[in-house]
Amino acid sequence: xxxxxxxxxxxxxxxxxxxxxxxxxxxxxxxxxxxxxxxxxxxxxxxxxxxxxxxxxxxxxxxxxxxxxxxxxxxxxxx
Length: 79
Ligand SMILES: [Zn+2]
Ligand SMILES: [Zn+2]
Fold this sequence. Notes:
By secondary structure, the chain is of the alpha+beta class.
């Protein structure tokens, strides 16, 4: 049986995470699996001096970081 994230065999003496989606991953691959496969909702923003979180964007689309990067690369070419 192999890890769904890195593809390496799951070893009997190592901790294995069994995700609710049915896959098995190494403990150290868990964060990657959750981010890649489940993409939990999050907001991008900052904390002000009062310690309050202010969202920069109210809605985070799927793979927003990748979209922003490609947009920044494309824009200068159009000018
Ligand atoms: Zn792995
Ligand atoms: Zn999963």
